[in-house]
Structures are given as structure tokens and as C-alpha cells.
Amino acid sequence: MGVLRWAYPASRDELRQCLRDGARLHGGGTGILRRPPSEGTLADLSRTGLDEIAVAGSAVRFGGTATFARVLGAAHQLDPQHVISAALSTAASPGLRNRITLGGSLALFPPWSSLLGPLIALEARVELIGAHEGGVPVSDYLENAGLRRRTAITAIEIDPADGWGCHWYAFRRTRFTYPLLTVTVLTRHEGDSPASVRVVVTGCRGRYRRCRELEERVAADGIPDAVASSDLGTDFRDLQGFSGEYLAHRTAVEISRGLKTAGGAG
Ligand SMILES: Cc1cc2nc3c(=O)[nH]c(=O)nc-3n(C[C@H](O)[C@H](O)[C@H](O)COP(=O)(O)OP(=O)(O)OC[C@H]3O[C@@H](n4cnc5c(N)ncnc54)[C@H](O)[C@@H]3O)c2cc1C
């Protein structure tokens, strides 16, 4: 029978060494401990000091081990309507939000993630150490598996979202279950028309989708009366008794609502 060892890196260099040795990272443990490994090394990140949250110039920097609860508090202080605040306030339960970390959540990016849509829409940057060092756009981190191998997320940087109006929506069977899909809409207006729009859907085929064609159409032609599911550029599998067709329709309706209500000053 294999043996599972724990490591407790207390600095960036010790964390780098753990990554070189092939250790798996343990943030909040809420994902990894669903199917705990029975051998190898788990490097617990709680002593690395990577949980700092700092406002630097026009950007906010959340440490990779900052919990959902602390990030939610910081985002709420920046702006009670902040998209991260809206999304994380309904994620999991209060007890779990005290454990779930930003780094673990982004590295896992489950289809029900409450974090993914806002981070993609805000065009966040992810700071890494290990086999790859430095900052990368969140979309690169998600699309390039090479960036996720033997690396640790040390921080996530976002624009404070000044001027963006937001609409956040999660569709779930009950208040306490995982979202089946999420919709994030950001809009910034010039006069009555949106000058910029960002629309991200999660839970769809491929886990997430930034609806760029729709964004461009809305910025050019204004808000449509209704968004159709064929405008999303993706589709949904049947899930938990809901047909893929219904989930796509639900998503399109929610995007329509978001485009009309998100607001945002130019
Ligand atoms: C009942 C329940 C309901 C939930 N509901 C929601 C919800 O509504 N919305 C939501 O967004 N989430 C929800 N979650 C949380 C989600 O499912 C994951 O469990 C969570 O995002 C994982 O974060 P963690 O910090 O616990 O990561 P861990 O479990 O510690 O790690 C997850 C993965 O990330 C890797 N990892 C950890 N930290 C880092 C790092 N800093 N850098 C690189 N890799 C790292 C690990 O090696 C592992 O592969 C829920 C969880 C539960 C149990």
C-alpha cells in the first residue's frame, strides 16, 4: 500500500522545491479531498503566506491562497455591486467559503465554478511560480495545460471594474447545490448604448465560453430585443433532468436580462 506524505512549504522557494519534486498542491482541500490521493506528497499551502489581498494602483491583487470569504469581503468593500462580490456571495456555503481558495478554485475550474465567469470577463491575470514563472492572462492559463503542470497560482490580479455594470446569475436546483450553469455579463455604456460588453457562460460544453461574436454584435448594433440560444456559440448537455435545449434557452434569457439591466457608466 502506498504512503501519503504531507509537506508544509513556508516560502516561495520551498514551494518551488515541492513542485519540482512532483507534490500535489492542497489549497482549501474541498476539491482534492473528494477523491484524496493515497500516495505521493500533498503540499499544503497554508503556511506560504500567499493569502495577501492588496489594492495596487488601479489593480487588485488577490493572493492564491486567499479564501472565497476574504475575497468576497474585499470585493464588497471595493464596490458592493462588484461582479466578484455578486458571484461569491452565493458560492457554496459560508463554512466552505472559509476554506475554498482562489488558486485551488481556478486550478480545478469545475463547470459549476462561481469564480471562472467573473475572472474571464474581467480579463484577470494569473501569477505563477514553478515550471512556468510570471503573469499570464487567465484565458491562457485555462487553455494551455502546460501552464498548469507543476506550477502554483500565487496571485490573481484584476481591474477594479470601475465603470462596468454587472449581471451575475447561477442556475441551480436548490440554493445549496452546485450551479448547473452561470452567466456573467459586464457592460459599459456611452449614453444609452453599451460601448463595451463582455459575456461569459460556464457549465456549457467545454466548461466555459466567452461569447465574443455576441459581444461584438451588441457593441455594434445595440442591445437586441432577445438573445437566442443560437447566439451563444456553444451548447449544453442534458444535466440533472434538464435538457441541453432548456439550459441553452435559460442561458440566453439570462444574458438578455443582463444586457438590459447591468448598467455601467461610460
Ligand atoms: C458542497 C460544495 C459546494 C460547492 N459549491 C461551489 C459553488 O457554488 N461555486 C464554486 O465556485 N465552488 C463551489 N465549491 C468548491 C469547488 O467545487 C471546489 O471544491 C473548489 O473550487 C476547490 O478549491 P480548493 O481551494 O478547496 O482547492 P483544493 O481542493 O485544495 O485543490 C483543487 C485542485 O487545485 C490544485 N491547487 C490548489 N491550490 C492551488 C494553487 N494555489 N495553484 C495551483 N494549483 C492549486 C490542487 O492540486 C487540486 O488539483 C463547492 C464545494 C463543495 C464541497
Keywords:
266 residues, alpha+beta, Enolase-like, domain 1, 3 domains, five-stranded antiparallel sheet, 12 strands, 26% strand, binds flavin-adenine dinucleotide
What global shape is seen? Answer: globular
CATH architecture of the largest domain: 2-Layer Sandwich
**What is the tally of helical segments?**
10
Number of strands: 12
List bound small molecules.
Answer: flavin-adenine dinucleotide
Please write the string of helix (H) and strand (E) elements: EHEEEEHHHHHEEHHEEEEEHH
Question: Could you characterize what this model shows?
Answer:
With about 270 residues, this protein is of the alpha+beta class. About 30% of the residues lie in helices and about 25% in strands. A hairpin with a 2-residue loop joins β4 and β5. The model has no long low-confidence stretch (mean pLDDT about 95). The N and C termini lie far apart (about 60 Å). It is built from ten helices and twelve strands. Bound molecules: flavin-adenine dinucleotide.
